[in-house]
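Troubleshooting: if your tokenizer reports a length mismatch, compare your output against this known-good record of 51 residues.
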Amino acid sequence: MNSNLTEKISDIYKSNNFSGSIYVQQEKEVLANISYGFANRSEKIKNQSDT
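Known-good structure output:
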């Protein structure tokens, strides 16, 4: 994974505190596949790859 890209995504998460998944792909190369917050907010189930 591109560490510069994941660092920028992490900074955005910290400033906005969103919940969801981010998948970035360029042609066949996966650049980022990250989940933040809750997979299910009402039951407070965390995403598996939560950072």
